[in-house]
Amino acid sequence: MNFLRNLLASILGSLVAFAIIMGMFFIFLILMGNSEEGILVKKNSILEIGLMMPIMDYTGVDDTDPFGGLWASEMGLDEIIHAIKVAKTDDDIEGISITTSFLQAGMAQTREIRQALLDFKASGKFVMAHSDFYSQKDYYLASVADEVYVNPVGAMDFKGLATEVLYYKDLQEKTGIKMEVIRHGKYKSAVEPFLSNTMSDENRTQIKELLTSIWDVILDDVSASRNISRADLNTIADTLGGRTPKLAVASGLLDGTLHFDQYEGLLKEKMGVGENDELNYVSLTDYIQNTNKNKLLSGSDKIAVIYAQGEIFFGEGGKDYIGQGLIVDALKKAAKNENVKAIVFRVDSPGGSALVSDIIWREMQLAKAEKPLVVSFGNVAASGGYYIGVGGDKIFAEPTTITGSIGVFGTIPNVNELAKNVGINAEQVGTNKNSVDYSLFEPMSNSFRKVVLESIEETYGTFLERVAQGRNMTVAQVDSLAQGRVWSGVDAKANGLVDELGNLDDAIAAAAEMAGLESYGIRQYPKYKTDFERFMEDLGGMKTKIGQELIQEEIGTEAYKMLKEFKDLSKQEGIQAKMPFSLNIK
């Protein structure tokens, strides 16, 4: 009976897999049939920017791959910026309407989009904004518009920046599951939640200064766009003077309250369209598909842009994490390609494996010996993220970039107390004095802790030397800025940890100047496998992805983030050079 049931299940599974593959094949045929037509952009169109998906610096999809956009769950910052640049000179695009709510992007990414919209406005075309709800990040982006509106019964958030750090010391004691911690750096608070139930003065100081620096950038940008002084903006934040739509309008944050149909009436006036006529919208996602092949920079000479994004783990790497495999291969290809005259290395990473960071750093040195190499920091370039970038000829950071965090730690799980509570006793047998160095089920010995601490101190010393060499400082100078402390891009520049404040375009322009190029094209690395390719390699892959989405839907986004952080802890092998905490700035 079991055999028959298993046989039927296997047959059914095969039929389902075959049906899925055939369905994908028909989609492929449809895509191929429509690929030549593209998206039709009508005359007198409005580009609608509604950023609903998470934004990554780079999705790594091949433009020629018909399956590249299937199951897309993120948008690429590079594609968003490119589309806005094309729209600036597109005669069919009359203006932009921003309808974004709950923007899923980092502060540096948000500012890069904002800067692109400022450049778009320089063409004389309009930028308008409307939303039912503005979070602070949503408003920061929308404030660039000529006019900003909200639903009359909507909401507005403008109160300053804050973050929250969770501590687990009591939880460890109650469960008997703890993390053994060895660290260097008084600010290295990635492991502080495992050692204490309260925030240290050093950690509180650095978080406050970091948030204040980022808030100052937001104030400057909003002040320039809305013609409200920094002092008045802080007063509005302190008194919650924008907590309701009416108060937000009275304070000058918004231009008015409108239902969406009323907002469209304003757009029709700007477009010279009759009240009963329809507006021609083109969505950003459609416009990206239409403009991806429209190269704004061209030439036989190329600048390679290599993207390193996510935490750093040992392995091949992908669009979600940095591994030495893809990054080293990309650096080698760019260095050996005769058409590539300079390299820009884009980093968005909180760090991770110290070993992988050093492997990538070494490859950066080899590439730099061949060609100019400029580094661009995105949302985060901290600890291992800073480590891999410090080898460039010049470093650019956004004012809101979180960087630095020069420090090292190690965490090792231990279940000795839990094992005793549930009646588990582990016995070890070894041939030599140190052959049994560590067991999850036994307290960490002083001799083992000493060995790990020696490794951490050695790694920290190497980290300091790498930074000192790259930034033309003494080791003592670096150490005074290190100890695991994080800095904003503004403060990092003031302390000599980066060279210039600017975005990816600024870094590319600097690389072109260093290589003596007047005209050039861009070549992006690496190319990632699409979701379809991963699906075809492992039909269980989509099941995993769907399962993750279902879990997130059931427990909520915030709880899912916590779950993911615990899961990521299990991936940490060896000594870590990682950002001191997970910051959700809100």
Topology:
Elements: H1 2-34, E1 45-49, E2 55-56, E3 75-76, H2 77-88, E4 93-98, H3 107-121, E5 126-134, H4 136-142, E6 147-156, H5 169-175, E7 178-184, H6 192-195, H7 201-226, H8 230-238, H9 245-251, E8 256-257, H10 260-271, E9 280-283, H11 284-291, E10 302-309, E11 311-312, E12 321-322, H12 324-336, E13 340-349, E14 351-353, H13 354-370, E15 373-382, H14 384-389, E16 394-397, E17 402-404, E18 408-414, H15 416-422, H16 446-471, H17 475-481, E19 486-488, H18 489-494, E20 500-501, H19 504-515, E21 521-525, H20 531-537, H21 540-555, H22 557-569, E22 576-578
Parallel strand pairs: 1-4, 1-9, 2-3, 4-5, 5-6, 6-8, 10-13, 10-21, 11-12, 13-15, 15-16, 15-17, 16-20
Antiparallel strand pairs: 7-18, 14-22, 17-19
The overall pLDDT, averaged over residues, is 87
Query: What fraction strand?
Result: 15-25%
Largest beta-sheet characterization:
8 strands, mixed
| Quaternary structure state of the chains depicted | single chain
- What percent of the residues sit in helical stretches (DSSP H or I)? 40-55%
- Counting H and I runs of at least 4 residues, what is the number of helices? 22
Instruction: Round the Cα radius of gyration to an integer and report it.
Output: 26 Å
Architecture per CATH nomenclature, i.e. the level-2 architecture of the domain at 302-407 and 467-578: Alpha-Beta Complex
CATH evolutionary superfamily of the domain at 302-407 and 467-578: 2-enoyl-CoA Hydratase, Chain A, domain 1
Number of separate strands = 22
Give the class-level CATH name of the domain at 302-407 and 467-578: Alpha Beta
**Mass-distribution shape:** globular
Rounded to the nearest angstrom, the distance between the terminal CA atoms is 57 Å
Per the CATH scheme, the topology name of the domain at 302-407 and 467-578 is: 2-enoyl-CoA Hydratase, Chain A, domain 1
Helix vs. strand class: alpha/beta
Q: Name the poorly predicted regions.
A: 32-36
Domain Peptidase S49: 120-269, 367-517
Protein name: Signal peptide peptidase SppA
Active site: 188 (proton donor/acceptor), 383 (nucleophile)
GO molecular function, one term: serine-type peptidase activity
